[in-house]
Amino acid sequence: MPLLDDDARSLPRVILSTRRMSENKTGNWRTMRPVIDRHICTGCQICWKYCPEACVKLTDKVPAIDMDFCKGCGICVEECPKRCVSFVPEASV
Amino acid sequence: MKKVLMGNHAAALAAKLARVQVAVGYPITPQTQAYEMLAEMKAKGEFPGEFIAAESEHSVMAAILGAATAGARTFTATSSQGLAYMHELLHWVAGSRLPAVMVDVNRALAAPWNLWTDQSDSLSQRDTGWMQFYCSTNQEVLDTVLMSYKIAERVMLPAMVVLDGFTLSHSYEPVDVPEQSEVDAFLPPYKPEVVLDYKNPVGFGALVGPKEYLRLRRRMAADMAEAESVIEEVGREFGAAFGRRYGQLDAYRCADARTILVTSGAVGSTARAAVDALREQGLKAGNLRMRSFRPFPAKALREFVRPGMRLAVVDRNYSPGAGGIWAQEIKAALYPRSRASVHGYVAGLGGGDITVELLQEVWKRVDSANASVPVAETWVEDAR
User: Fold this and answer.
1) Smallest Cβ distance to B221: which of A8, A12, A15?
2) B353 and A CB contact within 8 Å
3) Which domain holds residue B236?
4) pLDDT for B179-209, tens place per residue?
5) ipTM over 0.90
6) In 3D, which of B146, B144, B140 has the Cα closest to residue B17?
């Protein structure tokens, strides 16, 4: 059993995060994944506007969702006026 | 220069003398005058720091968390419900290892509403990671605020300076107010190792896993243990600079005493008078005043106590279902080897007078009690 009593004063007082958030990927606890149907999407950008994580990218007519940061909240699925975002279990992807 | 000051004003003046950079406040009886005096000094241009009038005590401590993270020396004062409302942020400030200093003016917690002195507010914050120091005079309030910055900035833990509502906060006493140059020589500017700085961005308060959390708490324990000697060291330095020396304990006429009144806060002054009265009756009485509650001065207490000693602990606080809090802590510190008996007395809750007469009665009761079966909790009130 490791004892934390020896040299306890060498332990840190605080832990600071010095990395940028772009390196600190936070999309790993997603259980459901939003998938956009390219054929139905009209490029209205409603999903981009509603995404609380700001991980919907508008590089193309059809938006791309950055899965390194998407938490799978499903707001884009709910808000899409064309109902073209399906929600699929991560396990099935 | 000697001035006649109430405790609240001694606290506010000490904050100014400590060159506090950010003072934050929200009014609550019986602390409000400390907040008002800081606001007035700011308006007159006598207090060069920032002064923030927050919208609640929760926001006060949040502002202090931010200001201290940015590297500022901070101050606030509160009381009772206000301190309870700060509770969550007290943990944040301590866990972030920021050396904030605050004043708490003891006042009973509701329900029912009560405005008067009672330690249930400060002692309820026992496990937040704040150091706690209890004062018995307005001079000690001013001195302890100054010492607290030095202690807190050494061990990187926040400190709460506690004084009795009305008994000290609103009572005028002569206070020797040091010159700014003397305070500057004693208390150098605060130089934090890491600060919030947009040129060198880092993330504070990040999520950590169980392994890191345990290790951070272990370090806090090490720093709390170190604080016990730092309190003594800074108390000696203060004595050398200003002629008033302080430690974790303050013993009065204890050298040949078998039964000792153990007190904290302003009751200490009354206890000295009770001890003098008992001595005049030929009784070997003493008073031990507890100045620190966190870190608990267990080591100093064990060194002080002699086998066969009887400690009459007077608690102006109560933990429902467990008894007086100082008595519990003292018993835990002395278990199992001290061979002293600890007798708990609960008195003066909600600001009731703890008089010289009452303390003499408590002392006599304990002096003639059966030491092998000490009563954990006896409730007493003044006869008047």
Assistant:
1) A8
2) no
3) 2-189+210-242
4) 999 999 999 999 998 898 888 888 888 888 8
5) no
6) B146
